[in-house]
């Protein structure tokens, strides 16, 4: 079943609107029952809760929630999604999402993962992402090497 043009579910601050218990119930259900990518209008505690729940429920997720990994503390979820869905997940996501949504979310997630490797002084891991590339190169322009060089100078 393909969704119409809306494959991203944009959510407000559910913790404030619903309270912690109901927000968690809603997010758990959305993560395991909906193929839509969850997104939040701003980074807040609701997004952090969704990231924590997605990591907990990774084996039950209907879709890889790449958008939730787009934070410097999103690396554990990124790694869990990568392990569960692998590089082929972008192709599989097209069943439920427009290719633009899936590809864009995946590219953004890879960039945040790359930056988190640098921020956590895992430069060798970041370099592997640049040199090995995987299914999608991190950066074809050479700017990734420049970023690593700048981060080495800053650290």
Give a topology summary:
Layout: E1 8-11, H1 14-18, H2 20-33, E2 37-40, H3 45-56, H4 75-85, H5 89-93, H6 99-119, H7 123-132, H8 143-154
Parallel strand pairs: 1-2
Helix pairs in contact: 2-3, 3-4, 6-7, 7-8
What does this 3D model show about the protein?
- The protein has 155 residues and is mainly alpha-helical.
- Helix 3 packs parallel to helix 4.
- The radius of gyration is 16 Å and the shape is globular.
Précis, in short:
This protein has 155 residues and is mostly helical. The protein is 58% helix and 5% strand.
Low-confidence stretches: 1-6, 91-97
Major β-sheet strand ordering? 1-2
Q: Count the strands?
A: 2
Average predicted local confidence, pLDDT: 80
Distance between the first and last residues' Cα: 48 Å
Shape: globular
Backbone structural class: mainly alpha
Order of helices and strands: EHHEHHHHHH
Helix content: 55-70%
For the biggest sheet, the summary is: 2 strands, parallel
- How much of the polypeptide forms β-strand, as a percent range? 5-15%
Estimated radius of gyration = 16 Å
In DSSP terms (H or I, runs of 4 or more residues), the helix count works out at 8
């Amino acid at each position: 079943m393909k969704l119409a043009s809306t494959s991203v579910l944009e959510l407000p601050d559910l913790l404030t609107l619903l309270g912690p218990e109901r927000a968690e119930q809603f997010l758990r259900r959305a993560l395991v029952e909906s193929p839509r990518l969850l997104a939040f209008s701003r980074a807040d505690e609701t997004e952090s809760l969704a990231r924590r729940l997605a990591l907990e429920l990774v084996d039950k997720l209907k879709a890889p929630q790449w958008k939730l990994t787009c934070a410097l503390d999103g690396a554990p979820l990124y790694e869990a999604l990568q392990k569960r869905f692998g590089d082929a997940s972008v192709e599989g996501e097209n069943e439920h999402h427009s290719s633009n949504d899936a590809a864009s979310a995946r590219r953004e997630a890879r960039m945040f993962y790359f930056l988190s490797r640098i921020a956590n002084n895992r430069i060798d891991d970041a370099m592997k992402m640049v040199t090995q590339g995987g299914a999608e190169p991190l950066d074809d322009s050479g700017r990734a090497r420049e970023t690593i060089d700048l981060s080495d100078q800053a650290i």
